[in-house]
Amino acid sequence: DKALEILEHLCETNRIETELSNDITCLIGRIYKDKYYASHHVDDNVLKKAIEWYRRGFNDEPNI
What we know:
The chain has 64 residues and is mainly α. Helix content is 78%, strand content 0%. It is built from three helices and no strands.
């Protein structure tokens, strides 16, 4: 949860380079995905957040 707080804050402040920002958005998506697996596939809120962050990363850089 602390990592998510830090990474989401970095993305909101736009203090990082675009390429790094895309890596971070995908990492955030991965963390939410792991949280979804840890919930035994029942926490739909973290699943939606995972999808939201993965889409954000894809929209920023669809060629990755």
